[in-house]
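Please fill in the sequence for the structure shown.

STRUCTURE ENCODING:
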């Protein structure tokens, strides 16, 4: 970005689904103390979760479906980034329709990419073909908050559409750019919102939502600013 060491990557949901695949290795230690590397070939993303809770770092989880699992490949040498500062809850701001709220206590977004993972054929092998999109993807989530007013409850009752912008702002890379992660959802609706009262704590409310298609923008867009030259 400009003449700085900051790089911004943009990821958007689309109507075709993932087309690339990866090799993923997970090492496990058996009861005798021997390290057993498991290698998963042909891994295709089938879903994801982005979540933030109080007292925690931002979490991003990817779900994979693999073509094959094998134990014959030796353990790869790990390579770690030179600078990797995680985002934490103190750097998070959740805004609805452009207005940030101070009473939100958690945020979670789940994506089901609608991929068919059972593509086996009568071809002399049990190996699966690469997953392909077979159903409409769905993106749902939940925001938890202290019950501060009827504003969000009324959005649920009235079926009001709104946007969500979740952002995390970290340390400066080079002026005017900081480490940053932004999740933008142009249009969604609350799917249920009833405040829960308690005798020994403040009333809270869970705000589950579903992401809608506005016919033009991506359902979910994530931008990530860091010093990584490629992702």
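FILLED IN BY: designer on duty
SEQUENCE:
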């Amino acid at each position: 970005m400009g003449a700085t060491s900051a790089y911004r990557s943009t990821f958007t949901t689309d109507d075709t689904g993932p087309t690339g695949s990866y090799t993923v290795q997970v090492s496990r230690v058996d009861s005798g103390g021997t390290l057993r590397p498991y290698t998963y070939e042909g891994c295709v993303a089938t879903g994801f979760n982005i979540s933030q809770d109080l007292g925690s770092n931002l979490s991003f989880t990817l779900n994979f479906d693999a073509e094959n699992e094998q134990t014959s490949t030796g353990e790869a040498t790990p390579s770690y980034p030179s600078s990797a500062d995680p985002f934490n809850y103190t750097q998070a701001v959740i805004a609805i329709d452009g207005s940030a709220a101070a009473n939100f206590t958690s945020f979670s977004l789940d994506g089901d990419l609608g991929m068919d993972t059972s593509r086996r054929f009568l071809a002399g092998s049990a190996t699966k073909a690469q997953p392909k999109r077979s159903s409409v993807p769905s993106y749902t989530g939940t925001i938890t908050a202290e019950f501060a007013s009827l504003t969000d409850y009324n959005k649920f009752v009235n079926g009001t559409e709104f946007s969500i912008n979740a952002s995390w702002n970290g340390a400066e890379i080079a002026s005017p750019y900081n480490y940053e992660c932004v999740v933008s959802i142009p249009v969604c609706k609350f799917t249920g919102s009833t405040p829960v009262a308690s005798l020994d704590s403040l009333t809270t409310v869970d705000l589950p939502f579903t992401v809608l298609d506005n016919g033009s923008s991506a359902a979910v867009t994530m931008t990530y600013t860091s010093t990584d030259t490629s992702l």
